[in-house]
Automatic annotation (TrEMBL):
PANTHER family noted in UniProt: GLUTARYL-COA DEHYDROGENASE, MITOCHONDRIAL (PTHR42807:SF1)
Domain Acyl-CoA dehydrogenase/oxidase N-terminal: 24-133
Family, per entry: Belongs to the acyl-CoA dehydrogenase family.
Domain Acyl-CoA dehydrogenase/oxidase C-terminal: 240-387
UniProt EC number: 1.3.8.6
Protein name as annotated: glutaryl-CoA dehydrogenase (ETF)
A molecular function (GO) term: fatty-acyl-CoA binding
Domain Acyl-CoA oxidase/dehydrogenase middle: 138-228
Domain of life: Bacteria
Organism name: Agrococcus casei LMG 22410
Catalytic reaction annotation: glutaryl-CoA + oxidized [electron-transfer flavoprotein] + 2 H(+) = (2E)-butenoyl-CoA + reduced [electron-transfer flavoprotein] + CO2
A Gene Ontology biological process term: fatty acid beta-oxidation using acyl-CoA dehydrogenase
Amino acid sequence: MSTIATAGREAVAGVFDFDALLHDEARQWQQKARDFAESRIAPHIEEDFENKHFRRELIAELGEAGFLGMHIEGYGCAGASATAYGAVCMELEAIDSGWRTFVSVQGSLAMSAIAKYGSEEQKQQWLPEMAAGRAVGCFALTEPAGGSDPAGMTTTAVRDGDGWVLNGAKRWIGLATLADVAVVWAKSDEGILGFAVPTATEGFEARAIDGKLSMRASVQCDIDLTNVRVPESARLPGARGLSAPFSCLNEARYGIVWGVVGVARTCLEVAVERSRTREVFGAPIGRFQLTQAKLADMLLEYEKAALLSLHLGAQKDAGTLNRSQISVGKLNNVRSAIGVAHEARTILGGDGITSEFPVMRHIANLESVRTYEGTDEVHALVLGRDLTGEAAFS
């Protein structure tokens, strides 16, 4: 079966036409991303997931389409609205979370860090190349002992003459084995600092993490930093303290808010189509009340998540989006997508666990998405802190 359930898509859009709610610029970007995802990613994604294969040749095409760092102004970037960027994330993740993750790591993390905190020289050196897909970046924050406590990082940056020496380890770093530059965060006597480290630097080693049962068509890595010597010019001069990497993480979380709506939509479309074509007891399963109730509940979760994304996009475009609302979006929409995907699997029956349908692959990927850029628990505690004034993190 095609990853794209045409009859299901038409049925879902007939009830809730989300595309019509987008403004013209966002809809144009969305359609470009949909065309790209369906023509360049969808035909191979089941095979790539099975074979743990990342199609590096698509990076330049993503750059040519303008998707990389598209929300950044200047330096070869598109300068698109936050809503348009969200719509692109939705269409890429509707096919596979790994490809929205690529765009997110490249644009929302690595490029955003350089754009927000880098020197003019660093911006000129890296951003045009990364926007075009000629260079790849990664964002090295998470460490092996735990990603939810970056304040406890053990990677160090020590001044040495007119430069710095970095030592430590990072884990679950997207794209690190492909990257030309790593934005590395380290603890120093001057606080948490960020560095744009060329990955060819002596002492920098990245290894792809194997054995993954999720996100198999993308690349996540371990990094070892052993006496990595960089000049002062590699330091991001505007970055000092955890607020810098956290602001980049919020950019990535915003993309997730939208991206998982694409997963929910795909799973709902596939389930609707299957409900019309699969027959038991002499009738399509879509005629039975329990199946219709499941589909109705799935539609509600998809629609609520989509409308929340649109609302947060409008807030971000207006400059009023805050960290609490980003946590609301990430926590709610990932939770909704997981629920929709699991219900879709039940409607597909036993066939739902096969690669004939995309649902089980989406379920597996969502287990990663719910963990990275802040776990469910972390986002719940962010909201709890803001509601009560009490921090429960320690």
